[in-house]
């Protein structure tokens, strides 16, 4: 059918954009940090955990920056994905920085005291030790 008026379709803005990119970066960074934390729960802090946590921190910083930019540039009410990405990135960044701080503290101070083997069952303040009369 012929029309007298031209097609008035407005070009739509691309969906996603910075918000989706930020969400992907924040999720990847958070997964890397979670794997580093899981590795440290199974074994002592290792270089593999350090690499994963460091990569996770870098990715979450990228997600936070892109999420913030996406939230600022988006129209009101259209920034849900960007705000979610920024929140996820903050959570991953906090976990990664805590893990890295624990790694540095253990690297500087060394491992803690060895666990007791349980052979000495004498209380710390036995009668012959504390001299209670």
User: pLDDT average, as an integer?
Assistant: 82
| Radius of gyration of CA atoms, rounded to a whole number | 27 Å
Q: What separation lies between the terminal Cα atoms?
A: 111 Å
Largest sheet: none
3D shape = rod-shaped
Structural class: mainly alpha
* Helix-strand pattern: HHHH
**Share of residues in helices:** 55-70%
The number of distinct β-strands equals: 0
Task: Tally the helices.
Answer: 4
The share of residues in extended strands comes to: under 5%
Unreliable segments (pLDDT under 50, ≥5 consecutive)? none
Detailed description of the structure:
By secondary structure, this protein is an all-alpha fold. 65% of the residues lie in helices and 0% in strands. The longest helix is centred in the C-terminal third of the chain and has 30 residues, at 80-109.
């Amino acid at each position: 059918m012929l029309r007298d008026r031209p097609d008035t379709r407005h070009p739509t803005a691309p969906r996603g954009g910075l918000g989706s990119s930020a969400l992907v970066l924040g999720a990847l960074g958070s997964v890397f940090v979670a794997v580093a934390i899981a590795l440290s729960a199974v074994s002592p802090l290792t270089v593999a955990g350090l690499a994963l946590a460091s990569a996770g921190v870098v990715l979450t910083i990228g997600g936070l920056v892109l999420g913030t930019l996406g939230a600022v540039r988006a129209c009101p009410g259209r920034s849900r994905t960007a705000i979610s990405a920024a929140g996820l990135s903050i959570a991953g960044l906090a976990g990664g920085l805590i893990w890295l701080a624990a790694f540095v503290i253990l690297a500087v101070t060394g491992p803690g005291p060895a666990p007791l083997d349980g052979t000495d069952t004498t209380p710390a303040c036995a009668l012959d030790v504390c001299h209670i009369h």
